[in-house]
């Protein structure tokens, strides 16, 4: 049994004289039995309820959560916290804007008069692949470019082309030549050429573009134009597979950038932008967001050589293993002298052996295709 007695019987009468009289502590008398003890927590709960109600009646005082009747189910402002938690859970999470979201935007249009490819030096429009490794997803992003991706290139002529085999329009070649001549202007004099070559040396500037295994890629065109903002010429260093055919590298650089190569030393090139070039009127080059998968081409090494039987082909391969090595190719080296060496070796022998240990598998396949 629990008895709750006030400190004074005349507490209500004394409230008018002394308003703080009711705040005096209460006397608790508890009779506890040894067999079953009375819950002391119930007594404390009843006392806090009475104290909080009297404080609110006399002083309009809102008790803290520790003195409220049900602090677990109600918050200070009287709202149910479970409902607020439910609202927070239903609130959608913030998602940052995506660059691939093209809702309400028109496709980008580029006026460059050539087909867009991932690599301009390591692929040839004349070689037709026999299949694709992935669906025709445009590496420029969905709906970002007004050209259709054929799995190999984005042609500049027919937007609805669906074939892998693309024949370049002869009018595009004439348009590229006209644009290049208008940008280059008058040719450089010998004194001007020497000054620009001297400015692009290693001890003068650190600006340089590196061409490696993939050769001249599409996004490198944008890098070249960015360098031309600050200087009239840019230094380009070529290493790896693309150096087997440096003539093709120089041709593609001049054809796709409308510039002029005014100096070449082994794999080091200096590309001039032209007299009439204006960075504010530079052509718009859409960037590839990812590298597309290479298509499937015919096998480089066939079962039989053309004109020979299977037994003769096997015999010739055995003889090739015993031929002394002509040269050993280093990784990411300069291979510009490889083609003349092979041609000279064919004068005295019908088989030539080249050591490609240490190179990537794709590297020596490309080297073999270029040599063939």
Q: Give the low-pLDDT segments.
A: 1-17, 22-37, 71-77
Taking the alpha carbons of the first and last residues, their distance comes to: 108 Å
**Annotation field: number of helices:** 10
Beta-strand portion reads: 5-15%
Number of beta-strand segments: 10
Mean pLDDT: 79
Gyration radius, in Å:
42 Å
Shape summary: elongated
What is the element layout, followed by pairings?
Blueprint: E1 2-5, H1 11-14, E2 27-30, H2 40-59, H3 81-90, E3 116-117, E4 153-154, H4 170-184, H5 190-199, E5 208-211, H6 218-227, E6 233-238, H7 246-257, E7 260-265, E8 268-272, H8 310-321, E9 325-328, H9 338-348, E10 353-355, H10 361-371
Write up what this structure looks like:
- With about 375 residues, this protein is an alpha/beta fold.
- It contains 10 helices and 10 strands.
- The strands form 4 sheets. The protein has a 4-stranded mixed beta sheet, with helices on both faces. A two-stranded antiparallel ribbon has the order 1-2. It has a two-stranded antiparallel sheet with strand order 3-4.
- The longest helix is centred in the N-terminal third of the chain and has 20 residues.
- The radius of gyration is 42 Å and the shape is elongated.
- Keywords: mRNA processing, mRNA splicing, Repeat, Ribonucleoprotein, RNA-binding, Transit peptide.
- Pfam families: CRS1_YhbY.
- InterPro entries: CAF1P_plant, RNA-binding_CRM, YhbY-like_sf.
- This is CRS2-associated factor 1, mitochondrial isoform X2.
């Amino acid at each position: 049994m629990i008895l709750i007695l006030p400190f004074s019987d005349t507490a209500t009468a004394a409230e008018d004289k002394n308003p703080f009289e009711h705040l005096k502590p209460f006397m608790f008398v508890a009779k506890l039995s040894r067999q079953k003890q009375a819950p002391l927590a119930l007594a404390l709960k009843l006392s806090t309820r009475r104290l909080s109600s009297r404080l609110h009646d006399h002083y309009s005082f809102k008790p803290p959560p520790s003195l409220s009747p049900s602090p677990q189910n109600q918050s200070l402002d009287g709202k149910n916290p479970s409902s607020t938690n439910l609202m927070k859970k239903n609130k959608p999470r913030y998602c940052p804007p995506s660059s691939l979201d093209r809702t309400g935007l028109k496709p980008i249009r580029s006026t460059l008069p050539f087909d867009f490819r991932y690599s301009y030096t390591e692929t040839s429009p004349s070689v037709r692949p026999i299949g694709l490794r992935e669906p025709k997803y445009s590496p420029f992003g969905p709906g970002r470019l007004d050209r259709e991706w054929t799995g190999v290139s984005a042609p500049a002529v027919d937007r609805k082309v669906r074939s892998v085999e693309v024949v370049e329009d002869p009018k595009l070649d004439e348009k590229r030549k006209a644009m290049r001549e208008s940008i280059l202007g008058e040719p450089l004099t010998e004194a001007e050429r020497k000054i620009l070559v001297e400015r692009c040396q290693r001890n003068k500037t650190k600006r340089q573009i590196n061409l490696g295994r993939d050769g001249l890629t599409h996004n490198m065109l944008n890098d070249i134009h960015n360098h031309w903002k600050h200087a009239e010429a840019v230094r380009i260093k070529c290493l790896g597979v693309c150096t087997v055919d440096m003539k093709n590298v120089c041709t593609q650089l001049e054809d796709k950038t409308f510039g002029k190569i005014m100096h070449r030393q082994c794999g080091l090139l200096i590309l001039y932008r032209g007299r009439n070039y204006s960075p504010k009127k530079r052509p718009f080059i859409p960037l590839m967001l990812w590298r597309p998968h290479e298509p499937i081409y015919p096998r480089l090494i066939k079962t039989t050589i053309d004109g020979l039987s299977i037994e003769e082909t096997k015999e010739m391969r055995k003889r090739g293993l015993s031929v002394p090595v002509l040269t050993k190719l280093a990784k990411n080296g300069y291979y510009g002298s490889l083609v003349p060496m092979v041609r000279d070796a064919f004068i005295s022998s019908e088989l030539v052996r080249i050591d490609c240990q240490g190179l990537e598998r794709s590297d020596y396949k490309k080297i073999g295709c270029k040599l063939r």
